[in-house]
């Protein structure tokens, strides 16, 4: 049966947060190849965002850059409107940008948890709220939240990050209930997808293969899942696990540590990645 790839009669315009590099770039390019115009959010990675924009323009799609600190509630509230002003419509938001800093129960701090909540929960919820308010009656839009397979396979690493993603996972269901039928809300949960922090290429390759399918996700896999979720009009309130079955393999440590020397404070710090290990 054929799938209607257009979520709405409105123009296909998507806002992707953290779109300049890594997984965000792959998602933005995947949407562009599928016929979407793009509003590309970035915080600090302006040159990367410019390169992504130029690649999208070369595909014959429209693309604009939108700088914003996702920890700034007031700025986040304006972000969807800025995309609409620039491109004339907005029918999809991909909440891809994520704070991903290491902590554990022994060095937990409220300040770090609050920072994760601001970037990984508050900003996505505000953007979903704004998209709902901006979508005309009778039309439909979609929010896609990037989550993490570890929510289905918990371990004690990255405590604040994991708590924030668990909250976003719950919000995916609750927003789908509250914003229907105007806005669909879907989660996409990658496995280990890109080298992160101090991880070696060899360690990444070993970890990437340690799944039931013998491979975890690639950036293209995640981009394909996002494109599918953006167009699957009967899909809402659920999460697509795109991880090679990694969530089926219990682990006492985060997968990125299983093939590297044990280090309880890897000091992986980024505020503008899509899940840095993804």
Shape: globular
Radius of gyration: 18 Å
Q: Quote the beta fraction.
A: 15-25%
Counting structural domains, the number is: 1
CATH superfamily: NAD(P)-binding Rossmann-like Domain
- The helix tally amounts to 7
Helix percent reads 25-40%
CATH architecture: 3-Layer(aba) Sandwich
Low-confidence stretches: 263-278
Order of helices and strands: EHEHEHEEHEHEHHEE
Biggest sheet features: 7 strands, parallel
Number of strands: 9
CATH class: Alpha Beta
Summarize model confidence as the mean pLDDT. 87
State the oligomer: single chain
Lateral arrangement of strands in the main beta sheet: 3-2-1-4-6-7-8
Q: Structural class per helix/strand content?
A: alpha/beta
Give the CA-CA distance, first to last residue. Answer: 32 Å
CATH topology: Rossmann fold
Describe this structure in words.
- Keywords: Oxidoreductase.
- InterPro entries: NAD(P)-bd_dom_sf, SDR_fam.
- Residues 268-278 have a biased composition (Polar residues).
- Helix 1 (22-33) packs parallel to helix 2.
- The protein has helices at 22-33, 46-58, 73-87, 110-134, 159-179, 201-209, 219-231, and strands at residues 13-16, 37-42, 63-67, 92-95, 97-98, 141-146, 183-190, 238-242, 273-274.
- The chain is of the alpha/beta class and 278 residues long.
- It has one domain: NAD(P)-binding Rossmann-like Domain (Rossmann fold, 3-Layer(aba) Sandwich).
- It has 7 helices and 9 strands, in the order E-H-E-H-E-H-E-E-H-E-H-E-H-H-E-E.
- A 7-stranded parallel beta sheet has the order 3-2-1-4-6-7-8, sandwiched between helices.
